[in-house]
Amino acid sequence: MMLRIDPSITPTMFHYATISQGEVEALRTVTNVVRKGRVQAITAKEITLEEGSEPALAGALYVDCTASAVETRTPVPIFQGDLIVPQLVRVPQPCFSAALIAFVEAHYPDDAAKNALCRTVPFPHDLKSYLTTNIINIMNQGAWFADERLGAWIRRSRLDGFGKIAAAVDCSDTARVAVLQELRQTGPAAVQNMMRLAAA
Questions:
Q1: Which of 14, 34, 38, 81 is deepest in the core (most CB within 10 A)?
Q2: Are 137 and 187 in contact (CB under 8 A)?
Q3: For residues 4 and 11, what is the distance between their CA atoms, to the nearest angstrom?
C-alpha cells in the first residue's frame, strides 16, 4: 500500500520507507511545510535551501531525516572470479539478497551461471529509477523460479515472505488461486509496460 503525506504533491524520491497509516495521519498535522529543495546548511540565524532560505529558530532542534541506508554505487557483476561483490538482488531486502548470493555461490558452477541468477538490482532514488528497480526485481524472480533448485530453496527460506504465502494457498481456494494465476499471467506485460515508461 502506497501512502502519501500530502496527496496533492507528487514525490520526487523513493527509498522504500515504511510507515503506518497512523503515522501518516500524525505527520499530516504538521502545517508549517517548507518546499524549497534540500537543506544546504543550517546556521544560528538561517536555514539555506536549494531554492531559498528560511530564518532559523533559536533553541530549535533540527533532525536530518533524508539520509539513505544504501550508498549509491554503480552496479557491477556480483561474481568476479575469486571476488564476490555483495549487492541487492531483490529490493528492498539486503538480508535475503545476501542469503541468495551465498546459496548461488555454493551450488552453481561458474560466474556466468551465477551472475545470470544474481542480476544486481539498483536501489531507486527517484520515480523513474523505481521502474528500473522493479523491472530487474521481476526478471530475477522469474529466473529464480525457472530454476527448480533455487526456487525450492526460496520457498523454504524464512527470509522470503511471498514464496511461503503463495505456496500455502490451498488449491481449493479458487479466489486466491485466481489471484496467483493473474499475477503470473500479467507479469510479462507489466515488465513491458514498465520498460516503456522507463524509456519515456
A1: 14
A2: no
A3: 8
pLDDT tens, position by position, for the chain (200 residues)? 567 889 898 888 777 878 889 999 999 999 889 999 989 999 999 999 999 999 999 899 998 877 777 777 889 999 999 999 999 999 888 999 999 999 999 999 999 999 999 999 998 888 788 888 999 998 899 899 899 999 999 988 989 877 777 778 888 989 988 988 888 888 888 889 999 998 88
Determine the 3-state secondary structure of 80 from DSSP. strand
Report the C-alpha gap between 49 and 120 in whole angstroms: 34
Which residues on adjacent β-strands are paired with residue 48? 41, 53
Looking up cell 529466473 gives 143
What the block records as the C-alpha cell of 156 is 523454504
**Helix (H) and strand (E) counts for the chain?**
7, 5
136 DSSP assignment: H
pTM, full prediction: 0.77
Beta carbons within 10 angstroms of residue 89's beta carbon: 26
Alpha-carbon distance 26 to 29, whole Å?
Answer: 6
Which burial class, exposed, middle or buried, applies to 132 when counting CB atoms under 10 A from its CB (0-12, 13-18, 19+)?
middle
* Cβ neighbours for 155, distance < 8 A, ≥ 6 positions apart: 163, 164, 167
Cell of 13: 524520491
